[in-house]
Amino acid sequence: MEIRLRPEMRTEGGEMITIFREDEWVGDAYFIYREGDVLTGTIQLDSVMVNSSDYSPIIEAARTYAADLADALAVEEAVIAGTLGDVKTVLDVGAEDDGSTVLWLSEEESQMEPPGEFSYTVEFKPDGSMQVERKSME
Questions:
Q1: Residues 8, 40, 133, CA angle at the centre, nearest 5°?
Q2: d(CA 35, CA 30)
C-alpha cells in the first residue's frame, strides 16, 4: 500500500499536509510549531475512507513525518493528536465568479448551529485579516 503525504501549505509557524492512500485522499495533518520550543498538531483521518486494516500504516506514516519534523525543528516538546471519524466541512470561504466572497455552511452542517436564525457578515481588511460578525435574526 502506497501512503503519500503532500505538503499543501507551509509558513514560519506551521504546515498543512494532505494524506493519500494509493492516490486517494484519506485525511489531513496540521502542525503548528515554534522552532527550538514546541510542536503540536492533529492528524485527522476520514473513517469513510480508511478501514481498520489501513489505519495503522497510515497513522504510522503521519507519525513518522511528525517525528522527523520535531527533530528538524529541534523542539523540546511535541504532542500530536490523532482522530479517526466522519470528516465534514464546517466552513468554506472562497471567491465566487463575480469576485465576491462567500461564507457558507451546508444544510446538514448548519444543524450544528444553536437554535435560532443568524446572519454572518464577513469583512476582509487590506492587511489580509478577516472579521466575521454574527447577528441574530430574531
A1: 70
A2: 16
What single string gives the DSSP state of each residue in 78-89?
Answer: EEEEEEEE----
Asked if residues 40 and 33 have their Cβ atoms less than 8 Å apart, the reply is yes
Strands (E), 2-129: 3-11, 14-21, 24-34, 38-46, 77-85, 92-95, 101-104, 118-124
pLDDT band for position 103 (cuts 50, 70, 90): very low
| Rounded Cα gap, residues 51 and 21, in angstroms | 11
pLDDT in tens, 6-57: 999 999 899 999 999 999 999 999 999 998 899 999 999 998 899 888 888 9
Whether the full predicted model's pTM is greater than 0.90, yes or no, is no
Q: Which residues contact 8 (CB under 8 A, 6 or more apart)?
A: 15, 16, 17, 18
Beta bridge partners of 83: 44
Average confidence score pLDDT of the chain: 78
Its sign, for the CA torsion 66, 67, 68, 74, is: positive
- Identity at 30, one-letter amino acid code: Y
